[in-house]
Amino acid sequence: MDLEQAIYSRRAVREYTEESIARPVLQKLIEAAIQAPSAVNEQPWLFSVVQDRSRLALISREAKAHFLRTSPDAPALHRLHGMRDDPDSDIFHHAPALIVIASVTESRWAAENCALAAANLMLAACAAELGTCWIGLSQGWLATAEGKRALELPATCLPVAPLIVGRPKASPAPVPRKEPQVRWIGP
Torsion angle, CA of 149/155/157/162, rounded to 10 degrees? Predict the structure, then answer.
């Protein structure tokens, strides 16, 4: 798959097969991620890869509870109401792997640096016919001391990009894009 095809076909995937993803495949995605640019070439990334199903379930349960307890907009997010009422719901959509991209520095550009790496990883996954989804709902809990321990991250790290990875059950349908607002300045 070429880059343009990956850019135009990559979509958030929320239904996965039970197939595990081999460590060398995940390593290849991480190698693509670290090719991203970073502010002042800091390259501050640390990757925590979780494939243990019981650890994924623990993180899902704790992150969901934390989000519902602490997020002021949780009641307004109608898509989450079923999740709130179902203690067995999985915020990671039963994906076989979670890759959390964290910053090892407290740089003012930590989020941007990790987001650039995440974009590379998601495009590389698409090219490898894998699905990904950024699970923002988990970010609050992952940034806590308990969340960092669950990811085996140093206390000084900042988890930024929690990405699930797996084999999609089906190809996601294209999503229409709005016309961009562009202001041309100059000739």
Answer: 20
